[in-house]
Amino acid sequence: MTELEEHAEALTIAGNDSDGSAGMPADLHTFYALGVYGLGLLTSAVAGNSKGIFAQELMPVDFINRQFQVLNDDYVIKASKTGMLGSKDVIHAVAENLKKFKMPNIVIDPVIITKHGATLLEDEAYQTFLDELVPLATIITPNFYEAQKLSEIELNTDDDIRQAAQILQNMGAKNVLIKGKHTGDEAEVRDYLLLEDSSEIWLSKPYFETNRINGTGDTLSAAITAELAKGNDIKRAVEIAKDFTYYAISHPIKVGSLYGPINHGAAQKDYEEKGQQNN
Length: 279
Prior knowledge:
The chain is α/β, with parallel strands linked by helices. It has one domain: 3-Layer(aba) Sandwich (UDP-N-acetylmuramoyl-L-alanine:D-glutamate ligase), CATH 3.40.1190. The protein contains nine helices and nine strands. It has helices spanning 23-33, 61-74, 88-100, 123-133, 144-151, 158-170, 216-229, 234-249, 264-278; strands at residues 9-17, 37-49, 52-58, 77-82, 106-108, 139-140, 175-178, 188-194, 200-206. Strands 3-2-1-4-5-6-7-8-9 form a nine-stranded mixed sheet, with helices on both faces. Helix 1 (23-33) packs parallel to helix 9 (264-278). It is globular. It starts with 8 loop residues before the first strand and ends with a helix.
């Protein structure tokens, strides 16, 4: 009998976007592209296409709890990420299960405000997110607008961003990655990483003009999750994730009529080629 190949297992706790561009599909595309076996714990289902989101259904809490139980009964989950959770009850259930099963390497993608500034989470659910989920984060990955809301300060300078990251650490998140604006006002998109040991890194990539950006944040946080599952440290995981996501953005594909997905296939090829060169 052929010996089975070892494969790291990672979990996405997220909603399913019916068009495949964001949420759980984007996470699973990313896990596969980075050589990790992806598990999917469904929190919601979205009816949407490249033009927008038109309906959403949340999963019952009992069903979410059951998914946690059966997955942890069978798999060795090395890293997990959260995406769209949607309600106070769902957030509470997710936090309780992450603690119950002592799940390691938790990546929190807040999904509370879009990259364009639209709010996605009601106030009561937002407070539960702050109180119960943020303190569990191995790393939290807010976009620019989410970082402003979470820290309650305007981010006008680099020092403001540093302060916001420190505030998130004070809330309990061990490591913080604040993603830069994607507006095209500047030539670069700069992300700021504050590590648990208080060291910091700025990661920059050229701004790439495209409307094919659905799933960008999901992909970045999923790539971090995949690399943590494989045993990389936070710094290396974030660096790989930044490169992977940029390559997916900068090689757009025509899928859908408006705000299409990024290109995980191109990013996978680039990642594999770099891996071969480093061997």
